[in-house]
Design brief:
Structural class of chain A: mainly alpha
Distance between the termini of chain B: 51 Å
Order of helices and strands of chain B: HHEHEHEHHEEHHEHEHEEHHHEH
Shape of chain A: globular
Number of strands of chain A: 2
Strand content of chain B: 15-25%
Strand order of the largest sheet of chain A: 1-2
Largest sheet of chain B: 10 strands, mixed
Order of helices and strands of chain A: HHHEEHHHHHHHHHHHHHHHHHHHHHHHHH
Number of strands of chain B: 10
Oligomer: heterodimer
Helix content of chain B: 40-55%
Number of helices of chain B: 14
Largest interface: A-B, 60 and 59 residues
Chain lengths: 589, 356
């Protein structure tokens, strides 16, 4: 580049030109700056902290030794290996169940399919930590209720065991919990593909006298493979981020995964080690970013394997014959395992002064005293208030931000909007535990420490916004595309400003999508665990954190009482969310 | 107009940036009488300690009778994680308590960061407080004592296997059936009696016996009481005492080995910026006094060195001897703690140096 051109870059006219560009795109600049503050600054701070010794707020110098120490630690490799094994095996289990359920619901004459839909959706209402705690009470090797029943049954056959036969505090236990947890999401991801696939190949197989099972494995499944693989990869990434079950049943057994290793290093272990925790966090983030990249590549070429064609006829329904009711029975078993059994044991525990397995003798001490005790605790109302405020603000802020950003990305032609869209997708692959750790690092050190939001409800809210913004923008992007641009243009012609048009025309038209997103974020904020737990202080404690505190303090009864109350709140909200999502799907299809 | 907006912005940002420095500090009395007057005027004290609800009523009862005008708001904090969180919150300018329990791992950090009020002349204000209870810096006062023992479930441990010494934890019979806390306070305490080499050797042998690693005492003891595991090699006497108070029929039993590590389990300090510093001083002084210490003895947190105390009596009966880790040993304790964690292969054990 010639020297004269270089100089020209700094002329007053160029600077003025830049300023006028900033002014004309002020809205975009402000939104981008806010998002950078929200997402990138904490992540950069986390990376910096991984090169520092000491407490992030009182660093003792720069070093590479955090990395050397972390990568020399056998526990790190064990945790990494366990994370991968856990994710891979539980993904296979999840996929197998979800594919079977999707096939039964969409392609067979199984009775009560609407009921089956509800049975498979309700588990979404059960927070992961409660699910794990429920199963900890059911399958503890010695005192677990199911183990006691199994031992009694085995004794009838002359087999005497002093413990087990099952143990939830094991890798197998973790796989069981993770495998069951993901089914609902994967079912929702693949059920559409089952509904809309081109049935001509199946028909051809049938004409060639292939059996129903042969048709399923040799035709249906290969045709749906791209959709299944995409869902599988999504589930694998989700399992890699799993925190609740590994914390509740993995850690007590000394089984670490990456998320619990971070929590252990920066919260539980004494002395805590932020430098090491940051290295684990950065490594974990890089690993998941790589997986996200692979996932997006897989999705990008998805259209090559199109299985949904324009042919307007429904696939033939497969008759199950005598297997119709056993098929429905599988949904009932799934519901019992994911909702009813954990709920029942937690409800039982909530009625006791201290936990003991169900028995006639224990019935004598059953009472509602714990519910009275919970409501009479002065701190409880503050925690309920915090939870509701967090839920409302996180949901509203996430969806409003998503709405504005999606409008910029979809409707405007400003430069950098694609980058903005990508920036918002980034947190999708960052585990909650790493987001929380990054927020701690960022808001304890200048310049963000001057905002003084560490320890308040605001920092938890911001953590949740970072986590849910990717979902919000995906939903709003696809919804804004559905709305005719002419409606907005008509408003401009009538002299309305951009803001007025957005608020009076676009937002009301997007209400169903906005409401669906709002409820989705609200439900997830209500059951959120890793971020509130990591960022918890006396001021910002929420329901799930208080519940965990009781549990880890050995107060199973009070923890269970809170768990039951949380489930009772979440189940109707989840069903309401389904209604709105069905409405949005109806609009978009 | 633009200049006006700029000025408003500068004032606003300046207020945010320098707010902590501008916070008014409450006046602290010079004599006990003055402190009592000011404390009664403050009317309440917010304390964060390891006491649970039942223990609070047992411990604070005497203070409430003596100073009925001062209301105590107590919050339970347990484990090193809650202390670390409290430290981080204090760094961020959140002062939620007037007086707090500062565990040995974070004492130096609190002092170095200037987050504690004082130092105070505790013995001048409260002459009946033992000299050993006051930290060398004068910021902290010991009120509760941790005593490390072996806890076991009597229905799972045969009489001939009842542990009598620490080395009994290495018996292959217990492989995979006993719990060890990953916070190695028991072992660092043993380090005082045994020295580093023997302690690290014991740590390695303990690891080889495949213990079930746990962090935190209450959950671990609950599981031993429920029969999930047989024994905890290194538990707190006070945690076991609490569970026994709650459930007198529990099968949890204590074994005192010949060397019983003891350390300050609850060191109280007044936080800088506390809104009720006089009430906090008064409460701390009372808790450290013989009257307060008797209350602590009732909940298993009394000193094992006070003749006639519960622990002292129990230990004398079996010929066990308490080994005290002193205030000054915190740095050595942290160093040994890291070495033990390294032997166990757990995070936090690696020693590192900054680039100079």
């Amino acid at each position: 580049m010639p020297a004269s051109t270089k100089t020209a870059a700094f002329t007053p006219s160029r600077v003025f030109g830049l300023w006028s560009q900033v002014r004309s795109n002020l809205f975009l600049v402000l939104v981008t700056a806010f998002l950078l503050l929200l997402i990138l600054v904490p992540l950069v701070r986390l990376i910096l902290s991984s090169f520092q010794l000491g407490h992030p707020a009182m660093p003792e110098g720069w070093t590479l030794q955090n990395y050397i120490a972390a990568y020399a630690l056998p526990t790190f490799y064990r945790a990494l290996g366990t994370t991968v094994v856990l994710s891979a095996v539980s993904t296979l289990i999840t996929l197998a169940i979800a594919i079977l359920f999707a096939w039964l619901v969409e392609r067979t004459d199984m009775p009560f399919r609407n009921l089956a839909w509800t049975l498979i959706l309700i588990p979404m209402a059960i927070p992961g930590v409660l699910f794990a705690l429920g199963w900890a009470l059911l399958l503890s090797p010695k005192t677990g209720t199911m183990n006691i029943v199994l031992r009694a049954a085995l004794e009838l056959f002359g087999v005497r065991l002093s413990e087990g036969p099952l143990n939830i505090y094991s890798l197998g236990g973790l796989i069981f919990l993770d495998g069951l947890r993901g089914v609902t999401t994967i079912f929702l991801m693949i059920v559409g593909a089952f509904r809309m696939m081109d049935p001509s190949l199946e028909e051809a197989a049938r004409v060639s006298r292939a059996s129903p099972a042969g048709t399923f494995f040799q035709v249906t499944l290969p045709v749906l493979l791209p959709a299944v693989l995409t869902a599988g990869m999504y589930e694998f990434v989700s399992s890699m981020e799993s925190f609740e079950a590994p914390l509740a049943v993995g850690l007590p057994a000394g089984i670490f995964v990456l998320s619990t290793l971070i929590y252990f290093t920066v919260r539980l272990q004494a002395p805590v080690d932020y430098g090491l925790g940051s290295v684990f966090g950065v490594t974990y983030m890089v690993l998941l970013l790589f997986l996200l990249w692979a996932y997006r590549r897989a999705v990008r070429y998805g259209e090559r394997y199109t299985t949904v064609t324009g042919k307007g006829y429904r696939p033939r329904v497969i008759a199950l014959g005598k297997w119709r009711y056993p098929a429905l029975g599988m949904f009932l078993i799934y519901f019992v395992l994911t909702v009813l059994a954990p709920f029942a044991i937690l409800f039982w525990a909530s009625l006791l002064p201290s936990y003991r397995p169900p028995s006639l003798e224990a019935l004598g001490v059953v009472s509602l005293r714990n519910y009275w005790e919970i409501f009479s605790r002065p701190h409880f109302l503050a925690v309920v208030g915090n939870t509701l405020v967090l839920m409302a603000i996180a949901a509203s802020a996430t969806m409003l931000l998503a709405f504005f950003v999606s409008w910029i990305v979809v409707r405007t032609k400003v430069r950098g909007r694609a980058l903005l869209d990508s920036l918002l997708f980034l947190p999708h692959s960052i585990p909650g535990i790493v987001v929380a750790l990054a927020m701690i690092m960022a808001y304890l050190t200048p310049p963000l420490s001057y905002l003084k939001i560490y320890g308040t409800l605001w920092i938890v809210t911001m953590g949740l916004i970072v986590t849910y913004i990717a979902f919000g923008t995906r939903l709003m992007n696809s919804s804004i595309i559905q709305i005719q641009k002419e409606l907005e243009e008509a408003a401009y012609v009538c002299g309305a400003t951009s803001t007025k048009t957005l608020l009076a025309i676009t937002l009301p038209l997007l209400f169903p999508a906005f409401a669906a997103g709002w409820i989705w974020v609200a439900v997830h904020a209500l059951r959120a665990f890793s971020i509130p737990l990591m960022l918890a202080s006396k001021r910002n404690e929420v329901f799930s954190v208080l519940m965990w505190q009781y549990w880890s303090d050995g107060d199973v009864a009070l923890a269970s009482t809170l768990g039951v109350l949380l489930m009772i709140t979440l189940i109707p909200l989840t069903l309401l969310m389904r209604r709105f999502i069905v409405q949005v799907s109806g609009q978009q299809s | 107009m633009k200049t006006f907006r700029l000025k408003v912005a500068v004032v606003f940002l300046g207020t945010i940036a320098f707010a902590p420095a501008a916070w008014p500090q409450a006046r602290i009395g010079k004599t006990l009488d003055e402190i009592v007057k000011l404390a009664e005027k403050e009317g309440k004290v917010r304390i964060a300690s390891a006491l649970d609800r039942d223990e609070e009523s047992l411990v604070f009862h005497g203070f409430q009778q003596k100073y009925p005008k001062i209301k105590i708001e107590s919050t339970r904090i347990t484990g090193s994680d809650s202390r670390e969180k409290l430290f981080t919150e204090a760094l961020a300018g959140l002062v939620e308590y007037d007086v707090t329990d500062v565990s040995s791992e974070v004492q130096e950090k609190f002092i170095k960061a200037g987050l504690l009020a004082g130092p105070f002349h505790w013995r001048a204000l409260f002459p009946n407080v033992d000299e050993k209870q006051v930290s060398p810096s004068g910021h902290l006062v010991a009120v509760g004592w941790s005593t490390h023992i072996i806890a076991y479930n009597s229905s799972l441990v045969p009489a001939e296997r009842v542990p009598k010494k620490w080395e009994d934890c290495l018996d292959p019979y217990w492989r995979g059936k006993f719990i060890v806390d990953t916070r190695p306070k028991t072992l660092t305490g043993l380090g005082v009696a045994w020295g580093e080499e023997r302690t690290l050797d014991f740590a390695a042998k303990l690891k080889n016996n495949q213990p079930v690693w746990k962090r935190g005492q209450t959950e671990a003891l609950t599981q031993v009481a429920a029969g999930e595991y047989a024994m905890i090699c290194g538990s707190y006497y006070q945690s076991l005492h609490r569970l026994k108070r709650r459930d007198p029929k529990t099968k949890l039993t204590i074994a005192f080995p010949p060397e019983v590590p003891a350390s300050v389990g609850e060191a109280l300090a007044i936080l800088k910026g506390a809104s009720n510093p006089n009430a906090a001083l008064l409460l701390t002084g009372w808790l450290a006094s013989p009257e307060g210490q008797k209350a602590y003895d009732k909940i298993g947190r009394g000193s094992p060195f006070v003749e006639g105390g519960e622990k002292w009596t129990l230990m004398r009966n079996v010929g066990a001897k308490a080994v005290l880790r002193q205030w000054e040993d915190n740095a050595a304790e942290e160093a040994l703690s890291k070495k033990i964690l390294a032997v166990w292969g757990l995070a936090g054990g690696a020693g590192r140096k900054a680039v100079q």
